[in-house]
Amino acid sequence: MKCTATYLLAILLACPFVSSAQDEEKDTDLTTQVTDTTAKDTTWKKGGVLNINFNQVSLTNWAAGGKSSVAFSGLFSYFANLKKGRHTWDNNVDLAYGRLIQDGGDDSKTDDRLEFASKYGYEIKGPWYASYLLSFKTQFDEGFDPVLDSLKISEFMSPAYVITGPGIDYKPKENISVFFSPVEYKATIVLDQDLADVGQFGVDAAEFDGLGNKTKDGQNLRSEFGAYIKIWYTEELMKNVTFMTKLDLFSNYLDRPENIDVTWETLFTLKVNEWLSASLNTLLIYDHDIGIIQETGDADNPVKVGPATQFKQTFGAGLSLKI
Fold first, then answer.
1. Domain definitions of the chain by residue range
2. Pick from 231, 226, 242, 247: which is nearest to 278 by CA?
């Protein structure tokens, strides 16, 4: 009995230390699990592509006619998206430039874009996120009207567009996002004073007296508040063939809200091999505040200015580098 009592006393005295050691071991395991979970929960996804296309035609004493030409275009697209617990942060940048140079001095742009977008989101429930969006768009180089080729109609930061504001983001899958904001701010920036003075891109034009002297400069900034929808979707249609589309819709509460600004882009990409690819890109734009110079066929009044649907289609094949 005395021996048994001694063993019982020893067990009772050891229990707190065993329990403590087990708790410590559990705490250590729990800490390790939390650390591992946190590490796995913080995920950056990054990637991009660089496409360079080149086309050259040389004609010498060519009976059928035509002009020698050199054309090139480049596209750089990169994204960096963060997922950490209930937080998301999506960033992407798109840069594009193209030019056509023909024999005889004809030289014109075929593409010119500089775009950046950043969106932070906090998961509310399931695929619904409370988000804040900031996007910026402009161009690199001067642009001239295709009808009156000596008339400059755009350049760097003329125009530039900034769209920012809070909203709700619906992301049921990684390849789709539908962002809606009822209180989005849109800024149209025209830093070139000559373009601002004629009211290009919807800014208030300059004021002149009866003798044609300017009494007030055109505004360099146009502010709009309204509802905004941005839809993004991408899908691999088949092996080495991907499709991407982006649709932006904006309605200005302050001025003719029935006129919806539309920007719709699609991109098909065919990967031939590690270095070669082909792409088909379309871009449709409608903005009621942008005046487009158009031919009328009237010799006394060959052009007119007004809103119109803008459409661009680009097909290219060339060097492709995945980043």
1. 2-322
2. 242
In three-state secondary structure terms, 188 is: strand
Q: How many helices (H) and strands (E) does the chain have?
A: 2, 18
pLDDT digits (tens, 9 = 90+) for 118-160: 999 999 999 999 999 999 999 999 998 877 777 899 999 999 9
Tokens of 200: 């290009």
Q: Is the pLDDT of residue 179 over 90?
A: yes
In this structure, what token pair is assigned to residue 190? 């025209």
What pLDDT, on a 0 to 100 scale, did the predictor assign at position 32? 34
Q: Bridge partners of 321?
A: 50
Q: Look at residue 104 and tell me whether its pLDDT is greater than 70.
A: yes
| Block residue for tokens 């050891």 | 14
Distance CA 63, CA 158 (A): 43
Mean of pLDDT values over 4-29: 37
pLDDT (mean) for 236-245: 93
> With the C-alpha atoms ordered 124, 263, 109, 150, is the resulting torsion angle positive or negative?
negative
Q: In terms of Cα–Cα distance, which of 138, 130, 140, 132 is closest to 99? A: 140
Average pLDDT over residues 5-13: 35
Task: Give a three-class secondary structure readout of 248-305.
Answer: EEEEECCCCCCCEEEEEEEEEEEECCCCEEEEEEEEEEECCCCCEEEECCCCCCCEEE
β-bridge partners, 244: 234, 267
Cβ burial of 61 (10 Å; 0-12, 13-18, 19+) is exposed
pTM of the model: 0.82
Integer Cα distance of 318 and 95 in angstroms: 17
Q: Which two tokens stand for residue 207?
A: 């004021």
